[in-house]
Specification:
By secondary structure, this protein is an all-alpha fold. The protein is built from 4 helices and no strands. α1 packs across α4, α2 packs across α3 and α3 runs antiparallel to α4.
């Protein structure tokens, strides 16, 4: 893959990430005015901070990736390793957005 191909692939992946986050944010929050609701609920319930909620979700994906690295396969076939990595990338961007929203 050359640089031009890489950049085209990167652009396509970010479009996929955007589509995924739109759909999942709708399904998980059910409230357009509270885009981080599924993360802030852990704090509301007194279980953890919102940041710890993000970290936990990221670790779930990292552990799934670690299992893939170790075993070379995944037992749950309906989520591909690419899906796991796209979810991780989306969690990172969601967390950045959340942290920025706290500054406002």
């Amino acid at each position: 893959m050359n640089q031009k191909e890489y950049l085209a692939e990167f652009e396509q992946l970010t479009k996929e990430m955007y589509e995924i986050t739109c759909k999942k944010n709708h399904d998980y929050t059910g409230d357009a005015s509270l885009p981080f609701k599924n993360f802030t609920m852990v704090e509301t319930m007194g279980a953890a901070t919102t940041e710890q909620g993000f970290f936990t979700r990221m670790m779930d994906k990292l552990m799934r990736f670690a299992g893939f690295i170790k075993n070379g396969t995944l037992a749950v076939e309906d989520e591909k390793i690419e899906d796991t990595l796209l979810d991780l990338a989306n969690y990172c961007l969601l967390c950045i957005c959340y942290l920025r929203s706290k500054k406002k």
